[in-house]
Structures are given as structure tokens and as C-alpha cells.
Specification:
The chain is of the alpha/beta class. The protein has one domain: Response regulator (Rossmann fold, 3-Layer(aba) Sandwich), CATH 3.40.50. The protein has five helices and five strands.
Length: 125
Amino acid sequence: MLRILLVTPTPGSLATLSAALLAEPEVRVSWDSTGESALENAASNSYDLVVLDEQIRDISPWSFLNRLVLVNAFVNTAVVSQRSEDDFHEAYEGLGVLTQVPAKPTMAEAGMLLRKLKEVALPPA
């Protein structure tokens, strides 16, 4: 079972991502609209992946990621961002982010995210 937390102030932007993830029987998806709420949620629930929208308003993405590690050092993270690949790498280098997610991910991009998560979160068969 893979548990994924989507953190965004605009849930509609990740509707396709959520649908693609939920199409997999072994995936459970939860939602939060603020960084603070997501940190509280992550402290009391075990997630395999937290997908953070850069556009959260109550905390900077960098502060969120640094605080999340204190809550659960083993959780994987992905960041929803419109930055160029180079700018994204520069902004998030050293924070252990698994991957960048586009602002409105397609089904194919959701599939790639899930494959990456399975590679790092599930033991080999």
C-alpha cells in the first residue's frame, strides 16, 4: 500500500494526478490545502510521498520540506513547480526531492511519478 499526500491550495490543478494515482489499487491519496495542516497530518500519519505545490501560501516550500524531514525523515517528496529544469534543480538541490511535477500533470506524468515512487519505496519483487 502506498499512501500519498497532495498539498495544494488549488485541488483542481492536481485532479488528473489524483485520478491517475487512485486508479492503482495499492494507492491511497489524502489532501491538504496548507503547509501547516499537511505537517500536522504527516506527523500523525505515515505517508510514502508528499506532493507539495510550490504555491502554498502559509509557508515557503523550503521551510515546509525542512520541517517535514523532522516529522518523517523517510518520506519521499515531489514538488509541483513551473520552474525550468535548471531553476528547479538550483532551488531544491540538497532537499531530497524525488522529482518535479508540472503544474497540471497529465496521466502520463502521473504514471512516471508513481513509477519513480515505486522504485524507491517498494522492496524489489
